[in-house]
Each structure stands twice: as structure tokens, then as C-alpha cells.
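ARCHIVE CARD
SHELF: 3
SLOT: left
DATA:
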Amino acid sequence: MPVVTPWWFSAIVEPILRRLVTVADVHVLAPMPWRNTGLGHNELVSCSDLPNVQWHIIDSNDHPSLRMAPIERDDLLAYIHALSPDIVLCRSADFATARAFPGTVRYLMEVAATPFWVVPTVMITDRPFANGVMPDLDAAGRARLDALIAPLWADMHAHQDQVTPDRHAVFDQLGISPDRPAFLLPLEYEHEENFFRQHRPDGVGSEQMLATIAADITPHGTLVVTDHPLNVLHVDRTALADLVSGLGDRVILAPAGVLGVSSTTALARYAAGMLVGDSKSFALAAAFGVPTMRRSSFASADWLNTYSDIPAFVDDVCRGDPRTPSAASTRTWFAYHFANEAFNPGSPALSGEEIIDRCCRTVNPARWDAGMARVLAAKPEQVH
């Protein structure tokens, strides 16, 4: 658990631990706190009542390296092999080292929910950041998932039609020219606690990436940038704002909201194309059928029809015939993601047996009805 933040521990990890100890002997391995990650006194005290837990807190001088690539990797692997775990459940940004662990290795990752709403959820997966990827499903399974999502799909689009101002109003409010294609770039979390940033293919920050993308986009259209909500709260974005102001009127940094709705959600409905990395915003683009260009080291499902080359992406968008996500597969994937993958670690109904089942069995149709029951077409306070 090297990149667990205090919030992640209290909201996700501790509830999972409390269920696992009822059915398994549990070992928790993590470094001591650094950059708001790791485990310390508060986390240990909060779990002091738990039986069947052994804590392995790494406090050596090189403990920060566990967030990226352990300096003493061989020693770490030998230590874990000596524990001989059956299942390893990771919250780690160092996927390469974790894959060398013994037993069944899985990762705790966030769920891509927008534009739907679910209670706080996570997923257990063996392929982090594999956008839209799902196993082969038989015809009966796909049909059942499609039936489960159908009423929610209709309600979601009806809600978005009701609450989202029209394209002219959104563009006018944000100063976007209606006469050029508008490309949306939702930025990712830039705080130092986000060690997943190390997997960006070019290893650069959002400012350098933005400058590079702008050079490809602005001769042909407008680049509209929206910031991650946690950046707005926790990260100094002065450099980003200065950069955007110097890139000319074809690059716009949108505020968090526009005319009472999320700027990212509103713009996803009207953008000619979206550029993503490992952001969960890919699901928003798929929901609205927006062509997408992805800069990432990880896989994207074929049905997303994702571009990996900006010039080809821009050319197709400007010509009016870009590849777009498969509408049918988009619905099926959302249903699979919610029904089969997502779960609420704080649910009283969650058991230790279910967590183990999620680690060991990729697809379990017995989860599907309860999984879909947690999903709403919109956040409750947004429903009028």
C-alpha cells in the first residue's frame, strides 16, 4: 500500500481490512508516511482492534522509493515471497514490482462513473488504466447487461439534456468560437501525492504537455482546457494560468463550472474531440460519442476507436469523419463496469468472501443486479 493517502485508507482500505479479517489472515505492507502517502500512527491506531492483521511498516531511509521503483527491489521481493501470500491486493503506482509478487496480484483503482453517479466506489483489477477493457462475454451476458443499463442510459441522457445549456450558450459563456472545432483537454491530478504520474509516456507535467498539444491543435481549432477538481483545491496553478494566457485566444482555460453545470461535462457534449491520458474522463467522452486521442502507456479497448496520433486525430475531426466509440459497446461497458467491477467498500452488505471473490473471479453475474442498483442517472441533488 505505498501510495495510500489518509483519505484512501479511512474510506477504502480500512473498510476492506475489516471485512477481510473475518475470513483471512491479513498482512499489510506499506512505507512510513511521505508526501501524504504511506501508513503512520493514525492509521495503525484506527485498526488497533482488528485481529488477524500483521503490519509491516517500512521505515528504512529509502522508503520513499517504494512509491516509484524500490531501490532495494530484490530484498523487497524476497521478503514478500517469504510471506507466501495467496492474494496480493495493491494500491501501488509501481506495477512492475507488484507483478513480480507471488500469488494472485490485483490492484485497487478508482471507478469511472461520470456522467452517472454512484456511491463511493472502487474496483479490483489486474490491468490498471486499461480503458474500456472487458472480457469476452457471451450473447446472453451482453444482453442482460444491456437490459440492466437501458433505463439508466435513457434517464442519464434525458437529465443531461435538461440541465446542460445548449452549445451556443456554453461556447458564448466560455469565449469559444463556434466557427472552429473545439477540442477538450481535461487535465489530471498534479499533486505530489499522485505517483501514478510517473507512467506518462513523456514524463512531463501538464504545462509542457499543454504547450505541445496546443501547437498541434491551434492551427486548426480551439483547445479548451479544464482542470482536475483536486488541482483547483490543492495545487498552485499560477504557472498553468500564465502559460494559457501566453498561448493566444485559441487556448482557453475554462472555469470549473459553466452556467450551473460542470464545464468538463458540458464541453464533452459539444466538443469536436477530446484528448486524454489516464484520466477517467475517457468514459465521459464515450458516453457522448466523442472522438478521443489518448496519450498513454496503457491499453485502450478496440471499441473506443481511440487515436494515438494527434495529427491524424485533428485531420479526421476537421474533415468531419473521425472514428468514434461504438455506441453499443459503450453501453455494454458501462453496464459491465458498474455491475461487475465497481463496489462500495463501506457497504454493510459487503463481505470478506465477496472481496476475495472479486480478486479471484473476473466475471461473476451474481454481482450484477446489486451492482446496478447502486447507480443513479444523476447525483441526487441534481435531480429536479
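SLOT: right
DATA:
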Amino acid sequence: MATAKKAPAKKAAAPKAAAPAKKAAAPKAAAPAKKAAAPAKKAAAPAKKAAAPAKKAAAPAKKAAAPAKKAAAPAKKAAAPAKKAAAPAKKAAAPAKKAAAPAKKAAAPAKKAAAPAKKAAAPAKKAAAPAKKAAAPAKKAAAPAKKPAAVKKDATPVKPPVKTTKAAPKAAAPKAAAPKKAAAKPAAAAPAAKTALSPQAAWPFPTGNKP
């Protein structure tokens, strides 16, 4: 019974005895690293201090933008499925984009070389702008006159009806030929009638003579 009472006391004493040693060891091990980081922290302090007013000044703008950000959240959430659905297409297009990169990179020097010429042409383009602007009303006023001329051009061709009148006699020709064709049919039927009235016509009896 005495041994059973001593066991829990030993168990409880072990963590209690280890705690101060653990506590003492932890800061001691971290101290060199903390000490080494101190100069960097000290050096960063002025920059942090200098950035504080800007951070403070930006706070109202950040605060003011919060409702807009909050209001945009549902739209952002609604657009998420579409964005997710477009991801495979974007992923599939990546190789083509990657393949086009060298050509884009190769074209960059030419683009860079053309930049000074483009820059040099800018003043001339800028100088021509007022003249272009001044010519705009005249161009606008000339537009209605140009439009009726276009309508007149569209109205000129009257050739198709003439073609139809020429084709009319052709269409009448088969009609004129139709009676001839009809007249030919009775002539063809005439020999059949003659054979029917002929005395030599076939007789159904075996004697071969008419009664």
C-alpha cells in the first residue's frame, strides 16, 4: 500500500522538475540568433519609422476604399466559377504563349529601334492635328453631297429588264412549236386505225374465215 502512494508523487514531480530546465534552455538557445538579428532590426527601424507617416496617411484612403472592396466582393465571388472554367483554356494556351515568346523577344530590338522614329514623328503628328480638326467640319459637310452621288450610282443600272424582254420570244417559240407536235400525234395514230378496219385483220376463230 505504501509503494502505491509513492508512485503518483514521483510521476507528478518529474514534469515539475523538468519545466525550469526547459524554460532556461529555450531562451539560451534562441539568444544568439536573436542577437544576430538585432543589427538588421535596428537598421530597419529608421525606414520603418519613416514609412509610418505614409502608412498613417494612407489609412483614411484604405478605410474609404473598404466599402467599395466589400461591395465588389459578391461580383468577385460570382466571377470565380467563370475564372475557374477559363483556367484550362488559359493553361492550354500557355505553351503557345511560351513558344511565341522568342519571336516576341526577337522583335523587341526592331521595336526599340523604331521607337526614336516614332518619337520624332510625334511632333509632326501633333502639329497636323489642328489642321485635321479644322478640316473635319468641311469633311462632314461634304458627306451628304457624297451620299446622293452614291445613290445615283446605285440607281443607274436598268439592264436586267431588257434581258427579260429579249428572252420573251425564246419562251414563245416552244409554245408555237406545240401545235405541230400535237398534229404529229394523230398522223402516227392513223395507221393503227387502218389496221383495225382492214379485212385482213386477225379473226379469233380457228377457221380463219368470217361467218
